[in-house]
């Protein structure tokens, strides 16, 4: 099964096409080094929320960082104000979902000042705009399915949702519910279901991000048998191997699985992946508690579990009723 990182593919596509636009609009005045520096900061703030917030609003936060980068370019005095204004208009074009016509109009004055002449510019920019609009929709909808969907259940923590995968395809009635459930949850099928769930959740997350919403967090399922299959595990994790997915999606792991695969889980935590630990019947209070609360983003526990007191001071405790 091919592994696709939806968010990374989306941002790579945007970066590639904004560079194309800048080269077309500026022609010989274009500087890869200058524009790439600005573009990198833009992508980090706009799509990954990866830099310290200067504003509570993701939109204005992005604008502030872009403004700072433009100021740095001006201070360097290595290019003209007209070029810098074009860079700014190209970023605004993507940030505000402006049309190709908007971009051409907003840069016309600066192109005249720079004596950039390209009789085909209108057509070329319009073609790129149409391709970008189409591709953005395609990427976000690529993994939506009529056969599968995810349920997002609220938890006691604000904006933290427990994810479950549902299927809607028809199965012949001659099979009992027990037989269907048994087949649906065999090791191999359960592992493959993770791909479907991760793709659906990352598609949802990407849609939220494009709407400037970074508020939601998701608890996603995991098949512990993947710890025995490194290649398949790496392919699955590649689907969320970017900063924003790692931050917003936490992998649910039982305490039993933590005991059995502790070293692998700790290594993944050190690589930026977040986990939610489900306290099960095998849990026993130990000196590990401080370590546990230091590496897991969330602790999940049944309200009737007598061990709940061991985690009462943990701020990210999810209580199951």
User: Between the first and last Cα atoms, what is the distance in angstroms?
Assistant: 37 Å
CATH superfamily of the largest domain: EAL domain
Gross morphology is elongated
Write the CATH architecture name of the largest domain: Alpha-Beta Barrel
Order of helices and strands: HHHHHHEEHHEHHEHHEHEE
Please give the CATH class of the largest domain. Answer: Alpha Beta
Regions with pLDDT < 50 over 5+ consecutive residues?
none
Helix content class: 40-55%
Structural category is: alpha/beta
Q: How many structural units, i.e. domains?
A: 2
The proportion of residues in beta strands is: 5-15%
What's the story with the biggest beta sheet?
7 strands, mixed
Number of helices: 13
Spatial extent as radius of gyration:
24 Å
Q: Report mean pLDDT, rounded to a whole number.
A: 90
The fold-level CATH name of the largest domain is TIM Barrel
Count of beta strands: 7
Biggest sheet strand line-up: 1-2-3-4-5-6-7
Give the structure's gist in a few sentences.
This protein is α/β, with parallel strands linked by helices and 321 residues long. It has helices spanning 6-26, 32-46, 58-76, 81-95, 100-114, 121-141, 177-184, 187-210, 230-238, 243-248, 255-260, 262-270, 288-295, and strands spanning 148-154, 160-167, 217-220, 249-254, 274-278, 298-302, 317-320.
List the helices and strands and how they pair.
Blueprint: H1 6-26, H2 32-46, H3 58-76, H4 81-95, H5 100-114, H6 121-141, E1 148-154, E2 160-167, H7 177-184, H8 187-210, E3 217-220, H9 230-238, H10 243-248, E4 249-254, H11 255-260, H12 262-270, E5 274-278, H13 288-295, E6 298-302, E7 317-320
Parallel strand pairs: 2-3, 3-4, 4-5, 5-6, 6-7
Antiparallel strand pairs: 1-2
